User: What shape does this take?
Amino acid sequence: MKMWTTALLLFLCAVPAGLAGDNMKAFPPAGAGMVRHVLHLPPQADEAGFKVELIVGRTVEIDAGNRYFFGGRIEEETIKGWGFPRFVMSKLGPMAGTLMAVDPNLPKVVRFITLGGEPYLIRYNSRLPVVVYVPEGVEVRYRIWTAGAESMPIGKG
Assistant: This one.
């Protein structure tokens, strides 16, 4: 009887640990017309010194003389019952750009055009996947930002 009790206790302790290791159960599959992108970050010694930039856009053929960007916004949502963040961009807005005159005979170039505005930086956390939902045909890229080791004082003014 003692052996069965010990085995049962070990099993009950192992089940929550196994569920905690599979965090993807918290993230639902993408809905119709959407794609789920998942990024697993490697552990760092001091994760407070890192940020992740999410870069969303599309590769398009454009003229080389103008600068372009897409409208749209990434929104952070908290998954109910789990408390995990997920990032959703429901619609990639229209592409806009500068209106400089260019030679119409020049060849077009293929470039990755991103959302306009400031970089979208999120907290670095290697214990949870970074999960981003975007419309089909939209690319998700990322960049890791690192803080310098040294901090400097600001002078009195």
